From TrEMBL:
Residue numbers annotated as active site: 141, 212, 550
A GO MF term: serine-type endopeptidase activity
UniProt organism field: Zingiber officinale
Positions of the Peptidase S8/S53 domain: 133-591
Keywords of this entry: Hydrolase, Protease, Serine protease, Signal
Annotated Pfam families: fn3_6, Inhibitor_I9, PA, Peptidase_S8
InterPro entries: PA_domain, Peptidase_S8/S53_dom, Peptidase_S8/S53_dom_sf, Peptidase_S8_Ser-AS, Peptidase_S8_subtilisin-rel, Peptidases_S8_3, S8pro/Inhibitor_I9, S8pro/Inhibitor_I9_sf
Family that this chain belongs to: Belongs to the peptidase S8 family.
Listed SUPFAM superfamilies: Subtilisin-like
Signal peptide: 1-23
GO BP annotation list: proteolysis
Protein name, UniProt field: Subtilisin-like protease SBT1.8
Length: 771
């Protein structure tokens, strides 16, 4: 079932409890001077305005606002954390601020959820904001809305002199719109034009009229913006993962999607311009790497020392639904945040069902009891009306009522428009079995509550069995601290990897559900032509029209920028290894990560190595490094024609004189063991670890796996004497089964190298072919 119009597939902005914010750091009194001309008319007094600023930082004015000045100055004094100070300093309404002689103190949701804000002692120095200003993230997407407050360059130093990019003029896009934050903007559309038989006119420009590119770019490196929200939802301070990093936008996606030639041209230009990180929240293919322009372009980027982050895809929970599976890219899946937007459906029999909504209590039908209908189509017996397809609802049957619509076939937000056009007063959007209990937030054109498959079935049953069914919809706004979280998103694409079964993908997951970030001024939150609302921010996960895990990918891109700033000499594979081997697999209740698709325990086929942990990735202890020649040997093991390998490696001298005995022998931070015929009941791999921790360190191996497999690692202890030293180990996996069917089709385990300071952990997937 399709909910997208392309192959595209995440800064989460939210307020945080004041007590949690101040617990991590020492507070101090600050005096903040405000530009009175910026006071919004909705706030009657300056004091209310000052209070709103504090509330946007999740600071309780009643407890922390010391003074609201009116005669001596326009401003206020308040107790702030240091991070709050930095955010206020960058806000356009703040003229100046300085500490009082007594105390010190500073937040947003996504960085806070990832442990990036407030900075713990030591971490702040390592993730140095000055160093990140030298890092440039190239975002290949639908372009950029340069007027977004997320691209404000206040406080940033001059653009690095090594930068060779440009801000290209285009329709409704002047080069002057670029600045020290948005350092480049280009567009590529020749492939799109060539594929358009109708020869439709395209406004050639890097300007983002879709919203997706602005959202992903601001998620990766957006500047701090106070009072950010989507129509009041997820309010707080918005900032990207690496707010000090620079952004270069490459528009490669147009109205009908993204063409390989345009993507490759964008990567080509980004390399020439001098980016450090490439973020591609768009779908690759499941074809061999030689036919995948993303894989080909990314190989060259990695050769130039550029870290490449790609979305895994949005075709979960189906097995083998991954895209972007090349080992030289980071393949990113999606998980949830600990934030939600609860809403409720109460039936006439008194039963109450929890759901999710971005509707507000001001939208007219809150707490009103209204008739509810399902399948009221203009054509009797047609199932199209149950999906609320355009033109299928009978206005006489739905006018003034709440309509239940099944999720699937057409876009979620389009269903809301169909209901509204037919005169419906509200909508219940019910998941089917394919979507399970996972809920995604959309800002529908009418009051809407989304419910999971189980609740949807119960509501359908009530409607069909009642003579006069009614419902009452209610909305709770934004709620933080949701448990369990993170949860693996049902839509996140899964393994096993069908391109190379011996390579475990995805690599890891990051926040990717219901993410608030910058948005285009060209369209409303739904992206529908009839949506006249405008907001500088939007909440997205699975876009109403676009498909893919795009919200999680830029989170990893931004975190990679932080690691690049902290370790400028690390290779792209070193950065990826650090992200993977330090990822976690337990939620905020201490239980194993859950899969939203069915509520059972998730596996490495859905989360790879686990959920990203930026703080631990900063100091992984050991890394699995990979050189370009190793990737060529990997390609040779796939038995690709020599010409195909040369096209990827851009080396005419590649002759496969060196090849891996097994594609799984690549020095990768994870393992995928495939047992085949009887002769393949034993699989052996070699790995090499590089010490990036303390000079003298000792690591011991810890192994877990299914009872049907004996795992042997030699040696069991690694003794390092210096930083940069490399030590190897061998691992043997022996299946103890003698007949087909005695082993599970798939199982999982872990290989960890541990000492008191570090745990360098690698997931292992086991798969048995039928003998």
């Amino acid at each position: 079932m399709a909910e997208g119009r392309g192959a595209l597939l995440l800064v989460f902005l939210v307020s945080v409890a004041a007590t949690a914010t101040f617990a991590a750091g020492k507070k101090r009194a600050y005096i903040v001077y405000m530009n009175a001309a910026h006071k919004p008319a909705v706030q009657a007094t300056h004091e209310e305005w000052y209070q709103a600023h504090l509330q946007s930082l999740s600071i309780d004015p009643a407890r922390h606002l010391l003074y609201a000045y009116s005669a001596a100055a326009r401003g206020f004094a308040a107790l702030l954390h240091p991070d709050h100070v930095d955010l206020l300093r960058r806000h356009p309404s703040v003229l100046n601020l300085h500490p009082d002689t007594r105390l010190t103190l500073h937040t947003t949701r996504s960085p806070q959820f990832l442990g990036l804000t407030p900075w713990p002692a030591g971490i702040r120095r390592s993730f140095d904001s000055t160093a990140t200003t030298d890092v440039i993230i190239g975002v290949l997407d639908t372009g950029v809305w340069p007027e977004s407050p997320s691209f404000d360059d206040a406080g940033l130093p001059a653009v690095p002199s090594r930068w060779r990019g440009a801000c290209e003029p285009g329709v409704d896009f002047s080069p002057s719109l670029c600045n020290r934050k948005l350092v480049g903007a280009r567009s590529f559309n020749r492939g799109f034009h060539a594929a358009e038989d109708e020869g439709r006119e395209v406004r050639v420009s890097a300007r983002d009229t879709d919203g997706h590119g602005t959202h992903t770019a601001s998620t990766a490196a957006g500047a701090a913006v106070a009072n950010a929200s989507l129509l009041g939802y997820a309010s707080g301070v918005a900032r990207g993962m690496a707010p000090g990093a620079r952004i270069a936008a490459y528009k490669v996606c147009w109205s009908n999607g993204c063409y390989g030639s345009d993507i490759l041209a964008g990567i080509d230009q980004a390399i020439a311009d001098g980016v450090d990180i490439l973020s591609l929240s768009l779908g690759g293919s499941s074809a061999p790497f030689s036919r995948d322009p993303v894989a080909v372009g990314a190989f060259s980027a990695v050769q130039h020392g550029i870290f490449v982050s790609c979305s895994a895809g949005n075709s979960g929970p189906a097995r083998s639904s991954l895209t972007n599976t090349a080992p030289w890219v980071a393949t990113i899946g999606a998980g949830t945040l600990d934030r939600d937007f609860p809403a409720y459906v109460q039936l006439s029999n008194g039963e109450r069902f929890a759901g999710l909504s971005l509707s507000s209590e001001e939208e007219g039908i809150v707490n009103q009891t209204l008739a509810v209908v399902y399948g009221m189509g203009v054509q009797s017996g047609s199932n199209s009306s149950k999906f609320c397809m355009p033109g299928t609802l009978d206005p006489n049957a739905v006018r003034g009522k709440v309509v239940l619509c099944d999720r699937g076939i057409n876009a979620r937000v389009e269903k809301g428009q169909v209901v509204k056009d037919a005169g419906g007063a509200g909508m219940i959007l019910a998941n089917g079995a394919a979507n399970g209990e996972e809920l995604v937030a959309d800002s529908h054109l009418l009051p809407t509550v989304a419910v999971g498959a189980k609740n949807g079935d119960l509501i359908r049953e009530h409607i069909s069995s009642s003579s006069n069914p009614t419902v009452t919809l209610s909305f709770r706004g934004t709620v933080l601290g949701v448990q369990p979280s993170p949860v693996v998103a049902a839509f996140s694409s899964r393994g096993p990897n069908m391109v190379v079964p011996e390579l475990l993908k995805p690599d890891l997951i990051g926040p990717g559900v219901n993410i608030l970030a910058g948005w285009t001024g060209s369209t409303g939150p739904t992206g529908l032509a009839k949506d006249n609302r405008r907001s500088p921010f939007n909440i997205m996960s699975v876009l109403p029209f676009l498909a893919g895990t795009s919200m999680s990918c830029p989170h990893i891109s931004g975190v990679a920028a932080l690691l690049k700033a902290a370790h400028p000499d690390w290779s792209p594979s070193a950065i990826k290894s650090a992200l993977m081997t330090t990822a976690y697999t337990e939620d905020n209740t201490g239980a194993p990560l859950v899969d939203a698709a069915g509520g059972s325990a998730a596996t490495p086929w859905s989360y790879g190595s686990g959920h990203v942990d930026p703080q631990k990735a900063l100091s992984p202890g050991l890394i699995y490094d990979i050189k370009t020649d190793d990737y060529v040997a990997f390609l040779c093991s796939l038995d690709y024609p020599a010409g195909h390998i040369q096209a990827i490696s851009q080396s005419p001298n590649t002759n496969c004189s060196r090849r891996l005995s097994n594609p799984g022998n690549l020095n990768y931070p994870s393992f995928s063991v495939v047992f085949g015929r009887k002769s393949r009941r034993i699989v052996k791999f070699n790995r090499e670890l590089t010490n990036v921790g303390v000079p003298s360190s000792v690591y011991f191996v810890n192994v877990s796996g299914p009872p049907t497999v004996k795992v042997s690692v030699k040696p069991t202890k690694l003794v390092f004497s210096r930083i940069g030293q490399k030590l190897s180990y061998k691992v043997s996996f022996a299946s103890s089964t003698t007949k087909a069917g005695e082993a599970r089709e798939v199982a999982f385990g872990w290989i960890s190298w541990m000492n008191k300071e570090h745990r360098v952990r690698s997931p292992v997937s086991f798969r048995w072919w039928q003998w």
